[in-house]
Predict the structure.
Amino acid sequence: MFSEAVKRIERQYEIKRTQADALFIAEKKEIYDANPRLAELDKEITSCGIRTARLSLQPNSDKIQKEIKDLQNKILELKSEKQEILDKLKVTLSPKYSCDKCNDTGYILKNGLSEMCSCMKQELLNEAYNKSNMYNLQDETFDNLDLNLFSTEPNLERYGSPTSPRENIQKIIQVSKDFIKDFSNKDQKNLLFTGSAGIGKTYISSCIANEIIKNGHTVLYQTAPLLLDSIFDYKYNNKSTKALYDNLFNVNLLIIDDLGTENLTAAKFSEIFTLLNARLLTPNTKTIISTNFSLEELSKMYDTRIVSRLIGNFNICRFFGEDIRLKH
Ligand SMILES: [Zn+2]
């Protein structure tokens, strides 16, 4: 199943690459048609190149050396004239691939070995997990978040905080931006989002996911019940593949949503505990946990060992305010 997905995505990449190449050829033709000097320059550069090659085959002499040197200087001049024209037009003559690490091939060379690019790993994760969770990763950015949806009125009684919902969400946005900036720093804590539904937890985690992917890391989103099903399917029913199971441990950012809604048994508890512990020890991995329950409520549901892991290794962000989905 996994290798089928790889093949399918490789075909998609090939189509993407072919389209980018075709687009480039068309764009180049347009630029060259509008600026005939470019074609002349190309012709001259090629002709100087051929003459240089021919000269270098002749018996060596001072005269030949000088002619070669002159031609090389001429080529440099022609190239810089070409670059000046392109700079003036503000264009670059290369295909526009969506990933500039792998040029949409899906693979990069690392220490002489071919390795899957993070963009392709992410495609596989999206296919395997993220799409099925209706996780709309595209439009959610910090810039698109309408702060007017958050009241500027503090209400200690209602929200249990002297801070207004607006001020609170601004703090959370800052914590999230720091998290993105220091993602690969081992001292950067994970994030725990608590608070009732509809006040921006999923939105903010999507914003973070978008940025993390843009920075070339992989992201996997999973609700706690589905996550435990994936683990159990792999370990006990062999329905899921090891590659998918491994992803839960190795993906750069794992987002566990809806913690506390799963039917918790001792076995499930120990799986979550193992996963969190393993991720805390794996370099360049971070976890965001989102829950509708408060820390106090979680402490009642789970063993103190999990809660103390959360308190020690997670920055806790409490969301509060009115349901913004109703306001939309
Ligand atoms: Zn790539």
In short: Residues 178 and 188 are 9 Å apart (CA to CA). The mean pLDDT is 88.
